[in-house]
Design goal:
Layout (H helix, E strand, L loop, with lengths): L3 E3 H8 L3 H9 L5 E2 L2 E3 H7 L9 H14 L13 H39 L5 H22 L5 H13 E7 L4 E5 L4 H7 L17 E6 L2 E3 L9 H6 L1 E3 L3 E3 L3 E4 L12 E14 L2 E7 L13 E6 L5 E4 L9 E7 L5 H9 L5 E8 L12 E6 L3 H14 L5 E7 L8 H10 L3 E7 L6 H11 L7 E6 L4 H10 L7 E5 L2
Parallel strand pairs: 4-10, 17-18, 17-20, 18-19, 20-21
Antiparallel strand pairs: 1-3, 2-3, 4-5, 6-8, 6-10, 7-9, 11-12, 11-16, 12-15, 13-14, 13-16
Helix pairs in contact: 1-2, 1-7, 5-6, 5-7, 13-14
Length: 491
């Protein structure tokens, strides 16, 4: 029986992005069966996976080191806990036993078929003898080839190792997938993977993270006060905040599929620190209470209400995958007393009331197209959130970032952007400066000419409010369809 592997796990196994595999599927190089790939096809298309490398050995060595040093570093959760690890190995052993039994049945069938062909050969009619003989010769050759095929045990061992170290979770009805590593709960791993799963307190009190196990094995890793009814337990319902996956799991769970699915919240956050990378921007780091995390989608904004100061809208610059640690890029405008007062009030441990989230400047997760991000000045804040979310979801084959500054502004997180460019094969970054002799319009036209097949790309742009209409006109005039363009003013 052909051995199948999920798209997400295949990408991990051969070290490429999901988008690269999807491209090869569209080109006919890889076949799919109910959303899964043939492992043999994967090995054929990516033969480099057979080449001996030290990556897996290094990973094993690292895990062994962690195990030895657990007493010294008891908080290290890089590997699954021993119970989960044992359960995964047991499940894998059971699957191996079943596979061996099935392989023996197929081997017996092939042997019986070969014997039957030999019995039938003398009775073949003269007119069919030649074809029959060819069939027999082909079958014998195929059987021999199977017996003497190259040993791919290292490849399959690598795949088995990945299954032991990380269980895969698939969410229905969306089809979203993510992996659970270490001792994370299903909810924690899902949020880290960029999914907008439904939850409330995240500590087992409210029951909002309730989900139904369709297949696979889960394990409770912490107690919870919310009581599931016996009927719910019988139907397979669990709390994702209190359980982890032992084997690959399929769940029915609620997800936010758009900004309309995110509830409005009112939370008091505490300032951790502020940074001033230049005189035009203040980077605010804040933390939510553990029991009142902020649910939001990348690209959305909030209303900040510091005590004694006017409320101000501000975009979230961090990824939803870390919902307790928030980041904001506050534009500071010279002569604007409101922004200057707000900037002056952002001291460590200051408590700020936030309400929201708001806005629909969010990712189109169902789009298979590559994404172009355009940021002007502090518009990089929400763009940063979108990029980190796209990376977590692994939804686009290629990501492009063009960060444009106007006179008096800077690329204040240049090193971060260049680190993405250096670390990711599918990420490209360019910093550009508008000047009096080369205004924003000219820079945007340059960006468009720098791209191939603009009409096939999704474009997200965050720009100063006064430039919204002109930016939209320039992008559309250069081939960006209205349906593939999302614009947002800097907040």
């Amino acid at each position: 029986m052909p051995r199948l592997i999920t798209l997400s796990r295949a990408a991990r196994l051969v070290g490429v992005k999901r988008g690269a595999l999807q491209t090869k599927i569209r080109q006919g190089e890889l076949r799919t069966f109910e959303g899964e790939l043939l492992l043999a096809d994967l090995l054929r298309v990516f033969p480099q996976t057979q080449v001996e490398d030290t990556t897996m050995l290094e990973r094993v060595g690292h895990i062994m080191e962690q195990a030895v040093n657990k007493i010294v570093r008891p908080d290290d959760d890089d590997a699954p806990d021993t119970d989960t690890l044992a359960a995964r190995i047991l499940a894998l052993g059971q699957e191996l036993a079943q596979a061996r039994q099935e392989a023996r049945r197929y081997r017996d069938l092939v042997t019986d078929m070969q014997q039957k062909l030999e019995e039938l050969e003398p009775a073949a009619k003269q007119t069919q003898e030649q074809n029959f003989s060819r069939l027999k010769d082909w079958f014998t050759l195929a059987l021999t080839s199977t017996e003497t095929a190259a040993d791919d045990s290292d490849f399959f061992a690598r795949e088995a190792f990945l299954r032991v170290m990380a269980a895969q979770v698939r969410i229905l009805p969306s089809g979203h997938e993510f992996f659970i590593e270490g001792s994370d709960s299903i909810l924690e791993a899902g949020l880290r993977g960029g999914l907008a799963l439904d939850y409330g307190c995240s500590n087992g009190n409210c029951g909002k993270c309730k989900a139904k196990v369709v297949s696979g094995q889960v394990k409770k890793i912490c107690p919870h006060d919310y009581v599931l009814s016996e009927t719910e337990k019988g139907l397979g319902y669990i709390l994702t905040c209190a359980n982890t996956a032992v084997t690959d799991v399929v769940l029915e769970a609620e997800e936010a599929l758009g900004s309309h699915d995110i509830p409005q919240q009112e939370i008091d956050i505490r300032v951790k620190k502020t940074e001033c990378p230049d005189e035009r921007v203040i980077i605010l780091h804040a933390r939510t209470p553990r029991t009142s995390r902020l649910r939001f989608l990348a690209g959305q904004y909030l209303t900040l209400e510091p005590e004694g100061l006017p409320a101000q809208e501000c975009a979230i610059a961090s990824c939803p995958c870390d919902d307790m640690n928030l980041q904001f890029h506050l534009p500071v405008t010279a002569g604007n007393s409101c922004s200057e007062q707000l900037a002056g009030a952002m001291k460590a441990n200051t408590v700020i009331r936030i309400t929201g989230p708001k806005g629909a400047f969010t990712l189109k997760e169902d789009s298979p197209r590559s994404i172009v991000f355009v940021a002007i000045n502090a518009g990089f804040g929400p763009i940063k959130s979108l990029i980190e979310h796209a990376m977590a979801l692994d939804i686009a084959e290629n990501l492009y970032l063009y960060w444009v500054t106007t006179p008096g502004n800077s690329h204040y997180l240049e090193n971060l952007c260049r680190s993405w460019d250096d670390a990711l094969d599918n990420f490209r970054y360019r910093s550009l400066e508008a000047t009096d002799s080369r205004p924003v319009a000219g820079v945007l036209t340059e960006i468009m000419t720098d791209l191939d097949a603009v009409e096939e790309l999704d474009v997200y742009a965050c720009v100063p409010g006064p430039l919204l209409e002109s930016v939209e006109t320039i992008l559309k005039d250069n081939g960006v369809a209205a349906s593939r363009l999302r614009l947002e003013p800097i907040r």
